[in-house]
Amino acid sequence: MNVTSLYHYYQETKQQSVEWRKSGSPRPKEIRVQKSPGKFLASIFWDQDGILLIDYLPKDRTINAQHYSSLLMQLKGVVNEISVGN
Q1: Taking the model in full, what pTM does it have?
Q2: What residues make up the domain containing 78?
């Protein structure tokens, strides 16, 4: 399992930022991309074949025993499904 904090970024692609302008007109100002307040915690469970389960926890919540137990039950279900499928 890996637990990490992630941030949302709102960034335009190059294609989205392209605009038509008259020759000689000033270039548009570029806006710096900053971290948004959308931070969250991601718990990622995987095995040798790839990712089994990803859980996103909002910024204002923490992992407690009840939440972690719930994650383990979900993971058990995923592992059981994979075992039955093979």
Answers
A1: 0.56
A2: 2-85
